Amino acid sequence: MVAATKFQSSYHYGFIDEATKKEIRRKTLKAVCIPGYQVPYSSPEMPISRGWGTGGLHLTLTLIGKSDVLKIIDQGSDASVNACHLRRFVQMMADCAVTFDTAQATIIQSRHRVPEEILTNRQILVLQVPQPEVLRGVERFEARTRQMHGEADYSKIWVSLYEAYVRFGATMRGSGYPIKVNRRYITTPSPIPRWDTPNLSMAHCLYLFGAGREKRIQAIPPHTPVEPLEFEDVKFRVEEFAGIRCSVSGESRAFMDEIFNGEGHRRHVINDSNFLDKLTSGERPPQRVFVNS
Amino acid sequence: MNHQEDQNWLLRVRGLTKIFGQPCDSSIAQTGPEHATNICPETGAVVAIADIGFDLYPGEVLGIVGESGSGKSTLVQLLHFDQEASGGRVLFQEVDQGRTNILALSNQRKRFIKNHLMGMVYQNPRDGLNFNFTAGGNIAEKLLMAGTFHVGKIRGRAGYLLTQTEVPVLRMDETPASFSGGMQQRVQISKAVANNPPLVFFDEVTSGLDVSVQAKVLDLIRKLQQESGISMIVVSHDLGVIRMLTDRTIVLKHGRMVEHGLTDQILQDPQHAYTQLLVSSLL
Lengths: 293, 283
Prior knowledge:
The complex is a heterodimer.
Chain A: H1 18-33, E1 39-40, H2 54-63, E2 69-74, H3 81-94, E3 97-98, E4 107-111, E5 124-128, H4 142-150, H5 155-168, E6 179-181, E7 185-187, E8 206-211, E9 216-220, E10 226-228, E11 256-260, E12 266-270, H6 273-280
Parallel strand pairs in A: 2-3, 2-4, 4-5, 5-8
Antiparallel strand pairs in A: 1-9, 6-7, 6-10, 8-9, 11-12
Helix pairs in contact in A: 1-2
Chain B: H1 3-6, E1 11-20, E2 46-56, E3 61-65, H2 72-79, E4 87-92, H3 107-117, E5 118-121, H4 125-128, H5 135-145, H6 151-164, H7 181-192, E6 199-203, H8 211-228, E7 231-235, H9 239-245, E8 248-253, E9 256-262, H10 263-268, H11 273-280
Parallel strand pairs in B: 3-7, 3-8, 5-6, 6-7
Antiparallel strand pairs in B: 1-2, 1-4, 8-9
Helix pairs in contact in B: 5-6, 5-7, 6-7, 7-8
């Protein structure tokens, strides 16, 4: 008798069926071919609601194999609730190894941060994106924003930067600062802080951006020039942590969290938990730090 | 007109046509002033303008007059790429030395021409200005589109233009929504001429303004024209505006050119019956 193996597992490998995986892979390839362009894709249903990291999960689950080592971080932390649940889900579905160590991972799924440690050409960073449309703030109609991208008509986003400077004397965008990818498309690199934006340019790794609710995939391939929008006389600046040191490691060159205790005292801690762990254990992982001009 | 002068044009328009709706073969033949309609009797298509041809010379101000519905606004909107023409050719000396029909270019090229080489002042400031941006931001938009990415230079230019147009520079960082109609119109003019384009269109700029503000706006346009030698196409139903601003005039009726010539000549000695009616009904 032939044993029925088909239904022995309650889920398909990687949760998504093969036809849909193929579709998402094709859209991912298209995104890699047109850096910074938002490729529409199917965004199939997942066990979590759209917009809660499904775009990242779609990309991770279509990329992953049993030999991959997965790391999932949420706002810099491997241990947050979201990160833990997503990690356990992907591990169950893909039967892969998981790690906290940035250097060991082959696929890193992240929300709101790019790791401080320099990523290599064996690694792919998958970012969960809530709103991939950089022009949404200045143009509410999707048909119009698509035409604006097609014709490289970016005057409105420039005016919004000009206005922010004129009204407030500085940019008001703490995260998702607009970038120009490969000298063509202006896009938003998901809500990563300005601190991480320079690390997108000419990197060794592949950056993939999945917006599940908005059903869009974007990519920044390795060695692609990425420029934050800046004026000739008003330059792009990353967050300054002048005179601030991490209360755990004593380090000053990293993106910091500001933590208040009950009495109103504040302290700073490095946001990237694996980077902090390595610093406290005496390692010094390679890092690219942008210096404001 | 000798051959030498004939090659000196800045903008050459030939056979420009715009039809809304489904035209038939005889739509154009069955409409126009001699039929007293611009609606095709067979299909109901509206022939907004048909077979318009003229040359605009550098530094010249050309007037377009006609009653409402005669196709004046459609004509400048076609030239400014706000609408797509149904037929005809437009050559622009600044683009490929006038060898290419600019109506047939890609949207990206059209946008470049519009941003770098043209300016447009609409009848309603809400069409030409973005009321979510400040007055300075609106002028900045035009400069940014034309490739100036220097905040200091943008603010310098915007301040200069607002001074020229007598808008208080102190109000540069307010939105135009808080301005009076005349001020909004002057901000719109500042925006249109911000990057010194060789060609600017004015579509009924003084309608809806009171007489003293009208005079100020007209003075301003004349001053800008004399100082920078911009070529202009001025659309108006008001013969007073046409008389004050323009060198040559085209008279439109039911989408056709019924008369064209020097403005003085047309106003003193109108040839076409419709132009005679227009001039005689001048208050």
